[in-house]
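It is worth pausing here to work through a concrete case rather than discussing structure prediction in the abstract. The textbook approach is simple: state the sequence, then state the predicted structure, then interpret. We follow exactly that order.
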Amino acid sequence: MGKHDILISGSFAIQFFERVTWKESDLDLYAEAGSSAEALEKHLREKEGYCVIRDTGGANYWPIEDWLETRTFTKKRADSTESQIQIVITAHMPIYAILNGFYSTLVVNVISWNKAYAIYPQPSFLRHKTYLLRKMDDYNGQSLVKYDARGWRSQDVLWPEEEASHGCMLKLRRLDDQFTWKIPLDITDVVPAKTPDFVLEFTSWKLSKYTPGERSNELPFYRTYNDKFSALTLKYRYIFRDHPLTSSGGGGDGRFWNDFLRPRIDRMTLLELHKIPAAKRSQLIEDTMKRYPDSLDILSNELTRCDISLPNYDHEIPGWFAEWERKQKAARVKAS
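Step two, the predicted structure:
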């Protein structure tokens, strides 16, 4: 899991935090399409003795865009029962698929190679309530029935009087923030992952309530807003809260982490490109540097073609984030 950035989610993670076991439940492993999913499948077959019993063959098993397909594996136990594992193959990073794909808040929990994260612990495990993250239909309704039977109550969105006391639901969130219930795992004799924890833990998002018209027969629900973030001078990809729905406050003024980080990383990328000898830079690289300094990411394939590699600045992100948070706190104090 650590080597290939694989995550556990779904009912197994709920059982972990609830301290229960549902014998009919399986284990859902989320792996990005390509080498990660291939390595996981090979491990289950060759090292764990599992065999595949169902493969969607590229069909979208769930009506969720980022979940490409699922492969179900089983293995006979000593007592003749079966152990079942599902590999959910995602188009992008597993955390992106988990945050944006599930139908209710209860199911949005993740377990990495070394930590477990309950993202909405207050409603999920203290109050045993779950709220909608997708438009309600018969498919999602049947998914909720399963957890109704296990002791959770379903509600579309928070009642107005509940909003003030449910900070973990409506604030700008980060996976490693104060609202997340984090449990470190025993990693004795486990080879540490090469990807730093902060790549996953700096994942950020914001829920926004969708309210249908007065005469609509639709139910309100929460939409999750975030986006993928990458740069030529970043080794890893990230998931950050994206711009607001309206234009106010989103024009690069630093109110959002993206707006603070992007200009800094673009300037560092441009600086590194200028360090490359002019004779080695292609005309496309030259033109992009001059005309489109805010769109340098389009040069990824061109840099590969020219055998040019740039240094990485991922190590700066924790410090830059701390500075952004300091500025946000200072602005709030000044406003008050």
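Step three, interpretation. The radius of gyration is 22 Å. The chain has a mean pLDDT of 90.
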